[in-house]
Design goal:
- By secondary structure, the chain is α+β, with helices and mostly antiparallel strands.
- The protein has two domains: 148 residues, Heat-Labile Enterotoxin, subunit A (Heat-Labile Enterotoxin, Chain A, Alpha-Beta Complex), CATH 3.90.210; 40 residues, no CATH class.
- The protein contains eight helices and seven strands.
- The strands form two sheets. It has a four-stranded antiparallel sheet. A three-stranded antiparallel sheet has the order 2-5-4.
- A hairpin with a 4-residue loop joins strand 6 and strand 7.
- The radius of gyration is 19 Å and the shape is globular.
- The protein starts with a strand and ends in a 5-residue tail after the last strand.
């Protein structure tokens, strides 16, 4: 038995539509499964893709449910975290994809142009993982070797590295196909109480 989670912030689609009744499906299941579409799904949040995002981390799902809706989740208007439960054999037609493995096979090589994944400082990756809180590291100028003189610029960041970092941050796994209602074992009501995220089992009917 393996557990996955999916957060639904306030007023988002899976907040308004109960997946315990309908299951999870992609917005554009007929779209081609290309590496570029996978990268866009994770790095740009492109929803018109054939993928469904899940996470192995309840904490990550809680963060999405509490903070990344149209409003912050409260006790009166909570976000939801769905728990998805899979046996050793997946439901028919469903595939789980580890994006880290897929993207790692396609990263630029050491001699490619632009060369490698980034050319920023060690702190640059903090900005990639948390661009809202650590934006100063993204904006820090590329450090040039002496004597310098090139036009100042910010560090290069490959699309592959950005996607890898975000997928690792969110412990993300992609599902391709339909996740049936029977695979959704629980839904939790989550909200921010001013100091921490609270969670309760949602016993409401649908």
């Amino acid at each position: 038995m393996t557990f996955f989670y999916r957060g639904a912030g306030v007023d988002t689609y899976w907040h308004e539509h109960d997946a315990r009744k309908d299951g999870f499906s992609a917005i554009k299941p007929e779209a081609l499964r290309t590496i570029d579409r996978l990268i866009d799904h994770i790095s740009k949040g492109t929803v018109t893709s054939p993928y469904i995002s899940l996470t192995r981390s309840y904490g990550v799902a809680c963060h999405y449910a509490a903070f990344l809706g149209r409003a912050r989740a409260t006790e009166q208007t909570p976000g939801y975290v769905y728990r998805v439960e899979f046996e050793d054999t997946l439901p028919s037609g469903l595939e789980l994809i580890d994006p880290v493995k897929r993207i790692a096979e396609r990263v630029p090589g050491p001699l490619d142009d632009p060369s490698y994944q980034h050319d920023g400082s060690p702190d640059f990756l903090l900005g990639v993982v948390s661009p809202s809180k650590m934006k100063k590291y993204l904006d820090a100028p590329y450090l040039q070797p002496p004597p310098g003189g090139r036009v100042p610029r910010t560090p290069h960041l490959s699309a592959q590295l950005e996607t890898l970092m975000l997928a690792l941050r969110d412990a993300e796994i992609l599902a391709y196909g339909t996740i049936p209602p029977k695979a959704i074992s629980d839904r939790f009501r989550v909200f921010w109480d001013g100091s921490k995220i609270q969670g309760r089992i949602d016993n409401s009917n649908f």
